[in-house]
Write a structure and sequence with these properties.
heterodimer; A: about 110 residues; mainly beta; six-stranded mixed beta sheet; globular; B: about 120 residues; four-stranded antiparallel beta sheet
C-alpha cells in the first residue's frame, strides 16, 4: 500500500488531454508545495517532469502541467502523443524528513 | 552533461551485506545532496536515503533505518550505500539520484537518476 494514492491506469487518444490524480494527507501533499511527478518508460530510469507542484524542468514539454488542491495533486498531459505512454509517479515531502511516492499510474495512449 | 552510474548489484543471500556505488560526473559533486531510491520488480518507487553535500547529515526511509548506511567520497565523486542484514523484500533496482541543492531535509525532487543496479536477495 503506497503512501500516496494514484489511479492504477488511465488512457486517452492521441491529441486528447488526461489528468492523473495523486491523493495524500495534510502531512504531505496538502502541507507542502513539494510535489513532483516522474515519467518512467519500461526498463528505463524515472525522468522528472514536474517539481514544486507546477514547475517544469528545462526540456520538458509544456504539454505537461501540474497543480494542487488541498490534499490532491494532479498531472495533466495535453495533446497526448504516443511517446507519452509510460508509468507516472507522484512524490511528496512528508513531515519528519522523508519522501513518499504514489503507487504509479500506467498511461495508455489508445 | 550530468551522469550517474551505479554499480555493485548482484545476488546475495538473506542476512548478508552488499555495498553499492554511484559514480558521478558532469557537475560539482561536492556541492549537491544525493539520494538512493529503489524499485522492487514490477512495483513502485521507494525513497531510501539522503546524504547532504558534505556528508554531515543523513536521512533514511523507515524500512532501511538501522540496516543501510549512505556515505560519500567527494574526492572520488562517488556515492555509496552499505546494505546490511539484507532481506528478500530488499530485492529491487537501486537508483542513485541528484538532489537539486545541498541536500535539504525537506526532501523534494531528484534529477537526474542513474540507470540503476539490480540487487536480488535470495537463498
Amino acid at each position: 500500500q503506497s503512501a500516496l494514492t494514484q489511479p492504477a491506469s488511465v488512457s486517452g487518444s492521441p491529441g486528447q488531454s488526461i489528468t492523473i490524480s495523486c491523493t495524500g494527507t495534510s502531512s504531505d501533499v496538502g502541507g507542502y508545495n513539494y510535489v513532483s511527478w516522474y515519467q518512467q518508460h519500461p526498463g528505463k530510469a524515472p525522468k522528472l517532469m514536474v517539481y514544486d507542484v507546477s514547475m517544469r524542468p528545462s526540456g520538458v514539454s509544456n504539454r505537461f502541467s501540474g497543480s494542487k488542491s488541498g490534499n490532491t495533486a494532479s498531472l495533466t498531459i495535453s495533446g497526448l502523443q504516443a511517446e507519452d505512454e509510460a508509468d507516472y509517479y507522484c512524490s511528496s515531502y512528508r513531515s519528519s524528513s522523508t519522501l513518499v511516492f504514489g503507487g504509479g499510474t500506467k498511461l495508455t495512449v489508445l | 552533461q550530468v551522469q550517474l552510474v551505479e554499480s555493485g548489484g548482484g545476488v546475495v543471500q538473506p542476512g548478508r551485506s552488499l555495498r553499492l556505488s554511484c559514480a558521478a560526473s558532469g557537475f560539482t559533486f561536492s556541492s549537491y545532496g544525493m539520494h538512493w531510491v529503489r524499485q522492487a520488480p514490477g512495483k513502485g518507487l521507494e525513497w531510501v536515503a539522503l546524504i547532504s553535500y558534505d556528508g554531515s547529515y543523513k536521512y533514511y526511509g523507515d524500512s532501511v533505518k538501522g540496516r543501510f548506511t549512505i556515505s560519500r567520497d567527494n574526492s572520488k565523486n562517488t556515492l555509496h550505500l552499505q546494505m546490511n542484514s539484507l532481506r528478500a523484500d530488499d530485492t529491487a533496482v537501486y537508483y542513485c539520484a541528484k538532489d537539486p541543492g545541498s541536500g535539504s531535509p525537506y526532501i523534494n525532487w531528484f534529477d537526474p537518476w542513474g540507470q540503476g543496479t539490480l540487487v536480488t536477495v535470495s537463498s
